[in-house]
Amino acid sequence: MITKFKIQSSKFKISQKGFTLVEMLAAIIVLVAVGSVIAGIITSSLRGANKTNSIENIRQNGNYILGQISKNIEYAQVFNGLSPDGKDYATSCPFSTAPTPVPEKTEYDFIKVTPPNSFPIVYNCNPSAITANGASLIDTNSIALKSCSITCTQTRATDVPIIGISFTLEPKNSNSLPENSAPILFETSVTIRNYKR
Known about the structure:
By secondary structure, the protein is of the alpha+beta class. The protein has one helix at 21-74; strands spanning 78-83, 104-108, 110-114, 121-125, 130-132, 135-136, 143-154, 162-171, 184-191.
């Protein structure tokens, strides 16, 4: 017995299916949306880091200046006085002579003290910087002085004057990023330990 085998060949159809234009546009829109969200997060993080660095720089500079000035005033060997113009220095502040004395705050631009074992130092609050003997105490490359005042309060002639120091610092380029423009206030009051000794 002879068996005959018949081999039928079937046609194989290879379907080459690609992406339609609608599918491509949908994928691009999703990728753009995800990219925009990621770019926003990165930009926000960088701005936050920039703001933090800027504020930290201002705080370090302000605290250093405030610490140096208040320490030199408090422990001054000689209190040379206060002056509105840097020429005539007064060693006491104006005070009320009424039956009940009321402290008066008087503003000055200059204060002169002689620290222990040192030469006299003249601190000046001018519109652009706080200076010590003419040298700026502020890093003027990145920080701007917004306001500055030196005040003196004294109730009676026998009282020790209380020196108030107040200044406000802000980033120098505060126009570039609006969130960086918040000024930071630094202030303290100091009693002179060696007053008229």
